[in-house]
Structures are given as structure tokens and as C-alpha cells.
Amino acid sequence: MNKQRIQSFAPLLSTEPKVLILGTMPSVKSLEQQEYYGNKQNAFWKILFALFQHDFSTVYADRVALIQQNHLGLWDVLQSCERTGSLDAAIKAEQPNDIQQLIHDYPSIHTVVFSSQKAEQYFTKYIGTVEGIRTVTLPSPSGANARMSLEEKIDAWSCLTAWCKP
Fold first, then answer.
1. How far are the Cα atoms of 6, 42, 89 from residue 146, in angstroms, in the given order?
2. Which entry of 62, 86, 127, 156 is 20 to 30 Å from 42 by CA?
3. pLDDT at position 2, please?
């Protein structure tokens, strides 16, 4: 099976994001749907709706609104790569996004959260440290991270609520 070159999405940002959540690359399902965290097995949206005390919604416009209302930003560390399937371990020939420029353009960002250890590794490789920015790696919301229950993932991600306060 040949690896395909895939592209990440444009960043999804509130007008004044405080926390930038970075994944690695969209999954095959997310790319098909053209939606961040589009795979139903990924708990990302369930976690965010629970943390910000909103009724869970599968409507993407509601998900976008949740990001915009809570001073968040979503993006991926990588702009493009070659990959067969959705696993980060299959990524080859990666190219990073210009995250430093995004942080420069949005000085309200004070925290970068990685939604996986692989996202953190790519960030370290291509960006390194950014002065004045706290970086935190949280457990992957992916269905592949079956060692944690949804409740444990929500608890681990609960730090977001304090960091996003106006």
C-alpha cells in the first residue's frame, strides 16, 4: 500500500485564544469529514463538552462554537506528511506548521497543550521551546488509548478550564 501525502487543516481559533491544543495530524476519518477529531472513537469532543459543562453534540458547528466560546485554539503540529492509515507511528516525510507565527499573531496564547506524546515530540523536533509559553502533554483522547477510561481522560484534561478563564 502506498503512503499518501496528506495536509492538515487550517487552525480553528477563538478571537482571543489562551490555550492552543495541538494534535499531530488529522485521522483518515477526520480528513474524510473535514472536521477536527472526526473519528467517533476519539473522545476529544466528549472531553471538551464535559469540561465546559455543555450537552454533548455531534454537530460540528456546535463543536466549533465550543472552541470559540472557551478561548481555545486547535491545530496540528504537522502541516503535511506521508501516512497510510491514521497511526502517528506511520508518519513519514513530515513538514511542520508555522506554530511560532501563530503564537506571534495571537499573543493571548499562554499555553500549548499536546493531545499526544507524538505531537509533543514533533513540536520539540521542529519548534523547540517558545519563550513565555507553557507546554503540557495530556493523555491522548484517541480510541487507541484504551488504557484510560473516558472519566480518567476528562479528569486528566480538567486543567484546561482554569487556563481558559477570561
1. 26, 10, 17
2. 127
3. 54
Residue ranges of the chain with pLDDT lower than 50?
A: 1
Residue 164, H or E segment: none
Cα–Cα distance measured from residue 21 to residue 44, given in angstroms and rounded to the nearest whole number? 11
**Do the Cβ atoms of 19 and 73 come closer than 8 Å?**
yes
- What pLDDT does 28 receive? 87
What is the set of active-site residues? 42
Alpha carbons 105 and 7: distance in angstroms, whole number: 22
Separation CA 9–CA 24 (nearest Å): 11
Which residues touch 120 (CB under 8 Å, ≥6 apart)?
Answer: 114, 135, 137
The conformation of residue 150, written as its DSSP 8-state character, comes to H
Predicted TM-score of the model (pTM):
0.93
Q: Tell me the helix, strand and coil percentages in the chain, rounded to 5.
A: 35, 20, 45
**pLDDT given at position 1:** 46
Q: How far is CA 85 from CA 30, 96, 113, 134, 142, in A?
A: 12, 19, 24, 31, 14
Q: What digits encode the pLDDT tens for the residues 32-65?
A: 999 999 988 889 999 999 999 999 999 999 999 9
Q: How many CB atoms lie within 10 A of CB 56?
A: 11
